[in-house]
Design goal:
About 40% of the residues lie in helices and about 15% in strands. It has about 300 residues and is an alpha/beta fold.
């Protein structure tokens, strides 16, 4: 099978490419830096720096994961623009080329995030929820999804990944938390009652492969574990796995001073339920946060493998 992937050097992208390559698929990666991509992905992956209609023709699946990390820098006006354009421009270009192709892909998977829902209370919400809170993350994801859906046709199935917090000890949110927790300085954020909707990196990749092989899955789908937790529960479990104390509380005012508007990502959450994923028959290897963290940090087996 032929795959075209954007965002292949990111956390999800390079893990997904490894899984697809192990299945013997032919993979083309759109990248801004061929040297970095080759170093990370190896020499067996075809690398391109620009898109043309020839790159779209005869691809079985296109997977669009490109985007400036949303939580790496303070949200200045210029950084907000970079976050938006890095997602919107490539998605628009891919959708336009898919529509022009004589032999378009049968599947277009495009990234998004549970940030589309905006900050929410602790009531569980699934893909049918539309009472969005209007804020920056909703603005980013709403436009991102709309552009991807323009590729939908009788030939091309479009699936949009509303991804939660992807847990991996080498990259992303968990990697950033490890140092203070290992130093015994970890703790909850504010009152710790904000809900964190998370997913183990292995389940993230398995979910994408499941979507690929399940033609009934279309449109937006929540990619989160089926057991969201409060920030306090997450933090306490992390401290326990690392065998470190759990004493500290980070006040909201400090986060606002340090991160500005971006602090909202830490102070508010969403209780997201992966209803479509569960109903399609997907089985999580790491359904609980304690099992996920033990596996990621101590390399213990999944709960399913213990049954």
């Amino acid at each position: 099978m032929n795959y075209l992937i954007s965002g292949g050097t990111g956390l999800i992208g390079h893990n997904l490419i490894t899984a697809l390559a192990n299945e013997g698929n032919r993979i083309t990666v759109l990248t801004r830096n061929k040297y970095k991509a080759k170093k990370l992905l190896g020499s067996n992956i075809k690398l391109i720096e620009h898109l043309s209609i020839d790159d779209i023709e005869n691809q079985n699946t296109i997977i669009n994961l490109a985007g400036e990390p949303i939580a790496d820098r303070r949200w200045t006006d210029s950084q907000k623009k970079k976050i938006c354009q890095s997602r919107w421009d490539i998605t628009k270009k891919l959708a336009e080329l898919i529509n022009l192709a004589k032999n378009p892909p049968s599947l277009f998977i495009s990234g998004s995030a549970i940030g589309i829902y905006g900050r929410q209370a602790d009531t569980p919400i699934d893909e049918s929820f539309t009472q969005y809170h209007q804020e920056f993350t909703h603005e980013v994801c709403s436009r991102w999804e709309a552009l991807a859906l323009e590729a939908k046709s009788d030939v091309t199935r479009v699936v949009i990944l509303r991804t939660g917090i992807v847990l991996d000890p080498e990259s992303g949110a968990l990697a950033k938390m490890l140092l203070p927790f290992k130093l015994g300085l970890g703790g909850k954020i504010c009152n710790g009652q904000q809900i964190m909707s998370w997913i183990h990196i292995d389940d993230m990749i398995s979910a994408i492969l499941h979507i690929k092989d399940t033609p009934s899955i279309k449109g937006a789908i929540n990619i989160t574990a089926n057991n969201p937790v409060t920030n306090a529960d997450f933090s306490q479990n992390l401290a326990k796995v690392l065998q470190r104390p759990f004493f500290f509380t980070t006040p909201a005012v400090l986060l606002k001073i340090v991160f500005g508007e971006m602090a909202d990502l830490l102070l508010f959450g969403q209780n997201v339920v992966p209803r479509k994923l569960i109903n399609s028959g997907f089985n999580f290897k790491y359904p609980t946060i304690d099992n996920a963290l033990k596996n990621l940090l101590n390399k213990e087996p999944s709960s399913n493998s213990l049954n």
